[in-house]
Structures are given as C-alpha cells and as structure tokens.
Specification:
2 domains; globular; Lyase, Ornithine Decarboxylase, Chain A, domain 1; 388 residues; TIM Barrel; single chain; 17 strands
C-alpha cells in the first residue's frame, strides 16, 4: 500500500528516489507500443529488481517478466509473480537446486534460456525428477557476442541435441541487441532492430521447417524496443512474439548514450547531501561508490563534452548544469563548480542522475517513489545482491 505522503528532504541520505510520473509514463509508453504491434511485452526486471515495480508493469499489460538470474526468479516468484523467463544461461549444483524448487512450485510458469547442451542436461535431470517438462528457450547470438549459439547450422545442431533430452521442451528462441551494436541515432537503432529481428525470424523458420515446435520468438532491447515494434507492426518481423526491454522503463545516463532513453525520461535519482564546503573549487557530498556505484562510462570518452577539466562525470546533477560530479570515493563524492556556478551551502540536498541505475538499485534496500516533491510510497528492492 502507498505510504502517507511526506516531504522527502527529511530522509537520511543517500537515498534512491523514483519520479512516479516518469516511471508511470515510461511504463505506459512501452506497453502502448507493444499493444499496437500486437506483440507480448515481457520486461527485463534485472534493472530494478523490485517485485512491486514488476507488478506495475504487469498491470499495464506485460504478459510476465524476465530476470537475469535464477536467484532473481526466486524473489519474483515469492512475491506472487507466476510467469517468468530466466534470460541468462546458468550452470552449477546450487543454481540447479534453486531451479528444481521453482519448477516444482505450483502455478509458476517458468522458462529457462540455454545456449549449451550441458546446461540443458542439468535441467533435463530436474524435469525428470519433478515429473514435468521444463520449457527451454535457446539463446541466439545475434551479434552481441555474449551469450548465445551462432545462427545457422550451430543453432540447428543445438536444437537437435536439446530435442533428445527428456524432461525439457524446446519452445522458443531468444535474442538480444547489445547497446554496443547500436549507433545512437533513430536510424542506427532502426537498422539494428531490423538486423537482429531478421536473424531471429530466419532461425524460427529454419527450426520450424525441421519440425521443431517453436512457439516463442523474443527480441527487443531498450534502445531498439520502439523500432522493433514498428517493424513488427509493419509486418516485416512476422515471427516475433515477445519484446523484452529493461532499462527503458527506468533510464540512466549510460543508456542515454545508446539511444536507450533520454535524460529527461530518467526516473531514478540519488538524493545526496553536501557535507563539506571547505574548498573554494568544490564541495563534498555523501554519495560515493557505496551509494552511487562507480560507473564513469569511460568507454564513451571520445564523445564531445565527455570530460570537464580532464574529469569524467559520475552523473549529472538534476537542475544544476553548473556542477560536475567528477570524482567519487567509497563514501564521498567531489562536486566541482564550473564557470560562474552558484555556490552550495552545507547541508544542501541535491539529486544525482546516476550513470547506472542498475548499480544504484543494487546498492540500496529501498527506493522512494516521489510525486510533486513528496514521498508517495516505498519500494523494497528485494532482488538486490541475489545471485552475486
């Protein structure tokens, strides 16, 4: 239930704040795009790791959720979410034991992504032990060069091996566009969405032609979700059945570089306090690695304006373009004055837009939903730290 609204400055800081208007607008926008494309929406919740936000996404029209890790699936299932895909292939006795408990859970629809037969063999043993077939999706490497079997003959070979294993059922294929694949323009993401979607459609047709019952074909990362929906709506990517964006619902500075969101749609900020004004060039705030994460996005260092006075940015300050968060330690951040900056006072509260929302969520137990300057509700980040 929503908490009684109170002004948020009394919070002990640092604290994760979520702009409820922006979060709801992001959820609505993506749900509307997938509805218009007549494709299922399955949000990747590894970003926020919060069952309450996941339920907001489901209430807006998502068919279920996707998690990165089997441990996160455990958290979401315990919260009553009953349609989950585990997107990252896994291996190991502890993880298989968790999977076994989840597969045996009444009412839970659980599918698991694999890209090697050895992973599937462990699932096969689980399926046989609990007396049910585990739905398996095969991960296709569409260019991200992370998880996945290569398209073409390797995909067909793995499918044949999977089909021989008892206790599992190959029901789908899964692809994912990496942010590194996209040129951060509308044209760039449109091109990648088409390329990746085309590979998956071709693999679905190949496998079906060989007699495999491929029901689910999933694509669509945060930068490409709207482009993919347009291609599907236009009838180009006819085989795609699900879209699985993640970060686009929350937004952060990292994804703004890859066309995954715009800065004005970032829903998460980190509330911090000025704790020292003893130097004329900068102040110290109480947000460092332990509160914010240490992502400097150094891989984008060739982007114009990336550095200021040879310092990268660890996140812009909401409403204060005259300040530069150029250095962080474990528990402190250095906030530098740019030219003609308005001086800060001891105890002043500021909001940082993090470079990585994922890191910020994973550091904190709670996030505070804010609307019009007051706390509307608390979110428990119950998935944080699970599976690490």
């Amino acid at each position: 239930m929503p908490k009684q609204t109170i002004p948020y400055p009394p919070l002990d800081t640092p604290a994760v704040l979520i702009d409820m208007d922006k979060l709801e607008a992001n959820i609505k926008e993506i749900a509307q795009a997938t509805t218009e494309a007549r494709v299922k929406l399955r949000p990747h919740v590894k970003i926020h790791q919060c069952p309450e936000i996941a339920k907001m996404q489901i209430e807006a029209g998502a068919c279920g959720i996707e998690v990165g890790l089997i441990d996160q699936a455990e958290v979401m299932a315990e919260a009553g979410i009953n349609d989950i895909i585990v997107a990252h292939p896994f291996y190991g006795e502890r993880k298989f034991e968790k999977a076994k408990k989840l597969v045996a859970r009444p009412g839970l629809k659980l599918a698991i992504v694999v890209d090697m037969v050895e992973q599937a063999e462990g699932l096969s043993q689980i399926g046989q032990a609990v007396g049910k077939k585990i739905p398996v999706h095969m991960k296709i490497d569409t260019g991200a060069k992370r998880y996945g079997v290569l398209p073409g003959a390797p995909t067909l070979e793995l499918a044949r091996k999977l089909s021989k294993l008892p206790g599992i059922e190959l029901v789908g294929i899964y692809g994912h566009e990496s942010s590194g694949q996209t040129v951060p323009t509308a044209e760039g993401v449109t091109k990648v969405a088409l390329e990746v979607g085309t590979i998956l459609c071709e693999m679905a047709c190949l496998l079906r032609g060989e007699g495999f019952n491929i029901k689910d074909v999933a694509t669509g990362a945060s930068p490409t979700v709207f482009a993919a929906c347009r291609w599907i709506k236009e009838g180009v990517l006819k085989e795609i059945t699900e879209i699985h964006p993640g970060q686009r619902f929350i937004g952060d500075i990292t994804y703004s570089y890859s066309y995954g969101c715009t800065r004005d749609r970032c829903a998460l900020t980190l509330l911090t306090t000025v704790v020292s004004t003893s130097h004329p060039t900068h102040v110290i705030v109480d947000a460092g690695f332990k509160a914010l994460g240490g992502e400097s996005i150094i891989g984008r260092r060739d982007t114009p304006g990336f550095f200021w006075n040879d310092l990268p940015s660890f996140g812009p300050i909401k409403g204060r373009d005259d300040l530069w968060l150029g250095r962080v330690a474990a528990e402190s951040g250095w906030l530098y004055y740019k030219e003609n900056a308005k001086k800060l006072t001891l105890g002043e509260r500021l909001e940082i837009i993090p470079n990585s929302a994922s890191l910020a969520f994973n550091i904190h137990d709670k996030a505070y939903g804010v609307r019009n300057g007051v706390i509307e509700r608390e979110f428990s980040i119950t998935g944080r730290g699970r599976g690490t």
